Amino acid sequence: MLTALACALAIAGALTLGTFGTAHAQQPDPLIDPAQGSANSRFQIVGQTGWIAGDAVTISFGFSDAPAGASYSGTLYNEQRVTVLRDGTWSFPTVVNDKLFPFPLWRPGYIVVKAQSATTTAINTYVYTVDGRAPAGLPPLASLGGGPSHNAPVFAITMALFAAAAGALVAVSGAMRKRALVEAR
Question: Which helix (H) or strand (E) holds 29?
């Protein structure tokens, strides 16, 4: 019975890891990698789909106390421009420093990234931390990639490994218990 449960948990973990690739392929656009950091952190903004080759994309940054969605209406700063490549993608590196905003970032929050071309508009957020403190509203497993944008595969891998390890522990404890019962007779 316990061995069957252990096998089921191990299989569930493997399936989680195996199916992650297809579920993870539909990432938010623009992709922000890594999804969080603090002052002087670097992150990459990548336009993945829906962009027309040769179009100019204007990238603007805002700051919010809550995760921003497509309805973000706050102030945007520091416009940057990038051109969409032939394959319909674009990329822009960013550093969180004094040049990004006209004010100091002294509290945790969300850096809103808005990318806009003549035909497409997309918004995503970067989680800004201060002295290891995350902003309010961030899910507890966000540091493992389970945050508002689910950008990191680490979360699914961690959950799959946890399920496999739990299955292995149940199998080992079942075998030890069975052995102890046999020796007791």
Answer: none
Give 76-131 as a DSSP string: -EEEEEEE--TTS-EEEEEE-STTTSSS---S-EEEEEEEE-SS-EEEEEEEE-BT
| DSSP SS3 for 159 | helix
d(CA 112, CA 126): 6
The number of folded domains in the chain is: 2
pLDDT tens-digit map of 172-185: 888 888 888 888 87
The model's pTM is 0.65
In degrees to the nearest 10, what's the CA dihedral of 93, 98, 104, 107? 40
Give backbone dihedrals phi and psi of 180, rounded to 5 degrees, phi first.
Answer: -65, -35
pLDDT at 127: 94
Indicate if 123 and 176 belong to the same structural domain: no
Domain that holds residue 182: 1-27+151-185
- CATH number, position 87: 2.60.40.1930
